[in-house]
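Entry:
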Amino acid sequence: MKHLLKAFLFLLLIASAKISNAGTYCLVKSAAHKGYINIPDTSVTPNYSDLNVFWADFKKYAIDKNYKALAELTAFKFMNQNNMISKDEFLADFSWSAPIKNLRKAGPPKYSKDKHYDYDTNKYLGHSYTAVVNGVLLLFCKIKGKWKFTGVSYGE
């Protein structure tokens, strides 16, 4: 009876996975059938098309010094003053991170008249938004529908 119940639950699981075709699937090892089965990925991706959601996560990661998570919120090539840096350089050298020490007190980025261009193709991406922290401008732009951290500019 126990094996019959396991088989029924397994078939129910497979049937529900095949019915819900929308979304991403992940492979899960099944001890009952000594193999892998597809199960829908129900994890929730943050809505970074919303500036408030992006800003809350950006502040949290910055305050916690979670630079890997910050890198996921960053557009590369990243502007550190007038130097363009790659993701590897971003993660290796945190000289760009000095202004985030007092980020806890900073308000969300505000619209700027400055236009933001892709650094490689010179394609217009949108207007920059800035947050000023300790006299340093943190630059942001909505790229392909999602907010990204695009650079820092000192003493302007």
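The radius of gyration is 22 Å.
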